[in-house]
From TrEMBL:
<dbReference type="InterPro" id="IPR002347">
    <property type="entry name" value="SDR_fam"/>
</dbReference>
<dbReference type="Pfam" id="PF13561">
    <property type="entry name" value="adh_short_C2"/>
</dbReference>
<dbReference type="InterPro" id="IPR036291">
    <property type="entry name" value="NAD(P)-bd_dom_sf"/>
</dbReference>
<protein>
    <submittedName>
        <fullName>NAD(P)-dependent dehydrogenase (Short-subunit alcohol dehydrogenase family)</fullName>
    </submittedName>
</protein>
């Protein structure tokens, strides 16, 4: 990976971003592309076939079509200045995950960056944000733990041997962290995000002697396609919705990942849970609108 002050700080970087059809993964992939990286964009949604399992959240948001796909994300990565490569992969299928990384290594010879972002939580989304655990469906366990945490572990165990052999590399696990507070209202979500954070820590402990970093990275409240749809607006008009004042674009998270990947001292961060807002201050980047949204906290006033 190149030095962050070069014109294309990630020129030559081979990155894999899982779950990059939309939302956080797409924002990360685009910013890595803008920094000059080759980005392997993975997920289940292709231009010809949308991923199954999203009927519930689509109905709640009043939509009939799943937004985004890996093909359009890969094209946007290339348009941004990098090289986007779309590879369809169900990250819950061990054989498909193995085949994905075998292909990446076969075609590129190495993996510099893995971003674990594949997330199945939307598949059991029922619009209930605040309820005691005994009122939430057990389906959340499968969607958030089996199709969230397990996805990250499967990808990491395939990427890690190559990074160890190289003596360098970075694994970023996207999570949500609010100063260690319990994410009241959905025990399953809290468990999944805490497990992701612990996964990043455990991997860091075992990878550090080999020069490989593992970091958990927490964005704030992102204006993903589903959030915008849920509020009956779009990226061009979100400022007309006062309730979205505290939101940030997925590309703010992407800029944090790009900054970490370009930092030659990234191993110093290994094992930590980092907040995008803190990294914006540290590295000097902004969101797409030029702001530096502060760290999101669940108990902050709505107008913050």
């Amino acid at each position: 990976m190149s030095h962050e002050n070069s014109p294309a700080p990630l020129a030559g970087c081979i990155a894999v971003v899982t779950g990059a059809s939309r939302g956080a993964g797409r924002g990360i992939a685009l910013e890595l592309g803008a920094a000059g990286a080759t980005v392997v964009v993975t997920g289940r949604s292709t231009r010809g076939q949308a991923a199954p399992g999203y009927d519930g959240i689509l109905a709640l948001s009043g939509q009939s079509q799943l937004p985004g796909d890996i093909d359009s994300t890969a094209e946007a990565v290339t348009a941004a200045g990098g090289r986007g490569i779309a590879i369809a992969c169900d990250h819950g299928d061990e054989a498909q995950v193995q085949a994905l990384f075998e292909r990446v290594l076969g075609e590129h010879g190495r993996i510099d960056l893995l971003v674990n972002n594949a997330w199945g939580g939307h598949q059991s989304f029922d619009g209930v944000f605040d309820a005691p655990f005994w009122q939430h469906p057990l389906a959340h366990w499968d969607s958030m733990l089996q199709h969230g945490v397990r996805h990250h572990l499967l990808a990491s165990r395939e990427a890690a041997p190559a990074m160890v052999a190289q003596g360098r590399g970075l694994i970023v696990t996207t999570t949500f962290h609010d100063r260690g507070h319990y994410l009241r209202g959905n025990l399953y979500y809290d468990l999944a995000k805490a497990a992701m954070t612990r996964l990043a820590l455990g991997m860091a402990e075992e990878l550090r002697p080999h020069g490989v970093a593992s970091i958990a990275l927490s964005p704030g409240w992102m204006r993903t396609e589903f959030v915008l749809q849920g509020h009956r607006t779009d990226e061009a008009h979100w400022t007309e919705r006062p309730e979205l004042t505290r939101t940030e674009s997925p590309r703010y998270l992407g800029r944090a990942v790009a900054a970490l990947a370009a930092d030659p001292q990234v191993l110093d961060w290994s094992g930590q849970v980092l907040l995008v807002a803190d990294l914006a201050q540290r590295y000097g980047f902004t969101d797409v609108d030029g702001r530096q949204p502060p760290a999101f906290t669940l108990d902050a006033p709505a107008g913050r």
